[in-house]
Amino acid sequence: IPITDLLDRASQHSDKLHSLSTILTQELDSHFPPIGRVIMPRPSMCHTSSLETPTDKDQALQVSEANLMSLARSLLQAWMDPLVVLSTSAHTLPHPSRNSIFNKVQELQEHSKNLGDGLNIVSGKMDPMAQTISYLPYSNNIGQDKISKLTNFQFLLSCFRRDSHKIDSFLKVLRCRAAKMQPHLC
Amino acid sequence: SPPGKPALTSCRSPEKETFTCWWKPGSDGGLPTTYALHYRKENSDTVYECPDYHTAGENSCFFNKNDTSIWVNYNITVVATNKLGSTFSDPVDIDVVYIVQPNPPEKVSVTLMEDRGMPFLRVSWEPPRKADTRSGWITLIYEIRIKLDGENDWEMHPAGQQKLFNIFGLRSGGTYLVQVRCKPDHGFWSEWSSTSYIRFPDYF
Ligand code: NA
Ligand code: NA
Ligand code: NA
Fold it and tell me: What ranges do the domains of chain B cover?
């Protein structure tokens, strides 16, 4: 399978991941305690915030293909454990749409896994640098009381939402670089 | 009296590379009033003032490429000041990736074509000039709408990422109006492009 097609499939998964995380955020927001917005941790508290990533187009376009792939894979890998936490806590989330939220988190897990498998294959066809994965451990927990559960769940989701947008953006840039012989694709 | 409370009304990025915020002034308290926009980026305590009040017109602040980062929250406030005091707007938190709304597609052209004696319309266009779709930094999908001159309802056609679309099966002859709009992968639909007119033959 040509790398263009693999990256195209990967981008479809990453696009879906980000869109799902947006829908989930909105769903959770429909019954979110106002105090939650005040006590919500800052984005710098996301467990992935230590990973240096480009912050605009010029920076992103200067990153090598192997390094963009490495960043996307590191971010995705960093979400494997926290997605399990999200899935487990969705079960007992004090929220009227708990079941729907749980199902969507399951979908996130499924897309993440498929995307991870796909990126393993693509990165194997690239410069060895693409295999490098930065380790970004997740250790926080969701908490016990109603406010903590909802706030930390939403916070974790907001971290995922940003990271999935990064992954999606990096993969779409990679897709277009791979497709440079067929400029009509981009 | 001191100025009334100003309100940030919207922020928008046409291409994920620059953005503009607009505000609505409150009452001026009957005195000459000036406005300033302040912002602070996530992970920094430094407060900056708007880098460019002119480019985007009245009651706006334009952030050029050098002043724009993505995946970073901007905490933005507008302050109105007259000689009796200052009044702050409610602050707004934005990340540029969530406010992307492109300009409309450009160079929309409609041509009358024929396939085995059957006429159809070919609509083609270009992405908005500012949006860098070539590098993949932004991915756009398109939608076309068409109607017979004088009718109320538009017929919609999703075109995906294509920049060319054939419309078959038009029933009546007459002048048709055609417009195209675009949406980024994660963002808002553009306005509709300016209208292209095409004369379609009577055909049965
Ligand atoms: Na994107
Ligand atoms: Na201005
Ligand atoms: Na910039």
Answer: 7-98, 106-200
